[in-house]
Specification:
The protein has 253 residues and is mostly helical. It has a domain at 87-233. The protein is built from ten helices and no strands. It has helices spanning 2-35, 37-55, 59-80, 99-117, 127-159, 161-174, 180-200, 203-220, 223-226, 233-236. Helix 2 (37-55) runs antiparallel to helix 5 (127-159) and helix 5 (127-159) packs across helix 8. It is globular, with a radius of gyration of 25 Å.
Length: 253
């Protein structure tokens, strides 16, 4: 019995350092992505170039670039091992920042009322338009994840909080060129959204506000200026539907 135990113990002791070294290597390999400023800079540059490429292309090329960008952001986020709390996906700060969506609801109600009073309100009428409005609300959360949980957090690691707020906002607004209305709105909104996120670290509230204010613009701004919320090449290729012919009453004899 003792001879058998003595024969096995060297194997166990010999295998333990190997397993320990492997686990240490994996943890240090992954943590190097998390703490590396160079990797954060590379992540931001590649993601932004893919976004711009997708916005200024169309057809199969655009679809490929969209999937490449989504995969790149997803893989970088996994490699950096940020927790759900760090990404803003937890419950922290939600109650403290709940005033932000409530204030946006008041702004939305005021904007819709003003547009209705001057005859500029165009709300969804068909099922397809309603579905597009719901889809935009989901897309607003995706945009905020890219802006806050990816761009801002990586830039904050490189530049610090204040500079990261400004630089991530500039990247976000420049992605909406040449739509002047959206470029201006996203610059002001980006500063506000990122400042709120930097303080409360909650993605849900800024996502709700983005959706509410974005739908307000979609329902009130004329398509002749807004081009149906398009940016990039889609803005330049947009052709508004011709206005319907007015139905006039028959002329009196």
């Amino acid at each position: 019995m003792s001879t058998h135990a003595e024969a096995e113990s060297p194997k166990v002791l010999a295998g333990w350092p190997v397993a320990s070294c492997r686990s240490c290597f994996r943890s240090s390999f992954r943590s190097s992505f998390r703490s590396s400023k160079r990797f954060s800079a590379l992540a931001v540059v590649v993601a932004y170039l893919l976004i711009v490429g997708a916005l200024w292309s169309y057809g199969p090329v655009q679809q490929v670039l969209i999937w490449l960008d989504a995969s790149w952001i997803f893989c970088c986020t996994l490699l950096q091992l940020r927790s759900a709390r760090e990404l803003g996906l937890g419950a922290q700060g939600f109650r403290q920042s709940s005033w932000f969506p409530l204030a946006s609801l008041a702004v939305m109600a005021a904007g819709l009322w003003m547009a209705c009073s001057i005859g500029a309100l165009h709300i969804p009428q068909s099922h397809i338009q309603v579905w597009r409005a719901y889809s935009y609300a989901l897309w607003a959360f995706e945009q905020e994840f890219i802006l806050q949980s990816f761009l801002f957090l990586n830039l904050e690691q490189i530049l610090g909080t204040r500079s990261a707020i400004i630089s991530s906002t500039l990247l976000f607004a420049s992605a909406h060129v040449p739509n002047l209305l959206l470029t201006l709105c996203t610059f002001v909104g980006g500063l506000l959204f990122t400042s709120i996120f930097a303080r409360y670290r909650n993605l849900w509230t800024v996502g709700m506000v983005h959706a509410l204010l974005g739908l307000t613009i979609a329902f009130t701004a004329p398509d002749s200026i807004n081009h149906h919320m398009r940016v990039g090449l889609g803005y330049l290729r947009y052709h508004a539907a011709p206005p319907r012919a007015a139905i006039l009453p028959p002329a009196r004899k």
